[in-house]
Amino acid sequence: MRKLLLACLLIAPGLVWGASAPVEWEGAKPFDGDLTDKPSLQNGMRLYMNYCMGCHGLQFQRYERTADDLGIPHEIALEKLVFSGQKIGELMTTAMDPVAAKDWFGAAPPDLTLIARLKDPEYIYNYLRAFYADETRPFGANNKMYPNVGMPNVLLELQGNVTEGCIQVPKMAENGGEMRDPLIPGKAITEEQCGRLVHEEGSGVYTPEEFDAAMYDLTNFLYYVGEPSRLERHRIGIYSLLFLIILGCFTYLLNREYWKDVH
């Protein structure tokens, strides 16, 4: 019985991790958040307030704390980023009626204060990049990371027109490298792959590379909001470990002094 219980305890974390693992798709990219990059966080807040705040609030975060952490003067924050008439010390809540939102979308848009702790930030980053046009969906958009998503593509004007189609991609050899044409030096052998996302050039405010950079900033901001004191916690943690190491040295010396005459 004890062996069975031990096996269940060892297997259970793996099952939970597997259930919450992000969905993979061919366009997924890694995400490495940087909370010391103030320009990235400031741009992420700008994007969030302009494109997300209408539906998704940050009910555990205050404008004042956010502006101070991101190095934004209060006057500029109120003028350029707060569109609801709220004061600088108030919580970042949305004015959307949850009952009406449920009628419009089928479910009220969730608060995103802790989304980066609930979901892997890499998942959020790729989710924001994975929208494409789909006329079969109620809002005309679908998502590679979250098939049949109920959320409209609110970033369409930035992203531009993206559809699901076929593209030519380099054919890969068994060793992982690209296959080359033996008759034409330097030319790669390509193959057609369907179900890929195809961007219509010039249809959005950003190029695909600029859009990816913007989504990095937006994800980085959500990464910060999930735990605003993360950098401070890391800093205090280092000092705490150094204190414990020094205390341990003195404790060892004191213990040796007490027991040196005991045989």
SSE map:
Elements: H1 2-20, H2 38-51, E1 58-62, H3 63-70, H4 74-80, E2 91-92, H5 98-105, H6 115-118, H7 121-129, E3 131-133, E4 141-143, H8 156-159, E5 162-170, E6 190-199, H9 208-226, H10 230-259
Antiparallel strand pairs: 1-2, 3-4, 5-6
If you had to describe this structure to a student in words, what would you say it looks like?
The chain contains 10 helices and 6 strands. The chain is α+β, with helices and mostly antiparallel strands and 263 residues long. It folds into 2 domains: 26-159 and 205-255, Cytochrome c-like domain (Cytochrome Bc1 Complex, Chain D, domain 2, Orthogonal Bundle); 162-199, no CATH class. The radius of gyration is 25 Å and the shape is flat. 21% of the residues are buried. Residues 1-22 have low confidence and may be disordered.
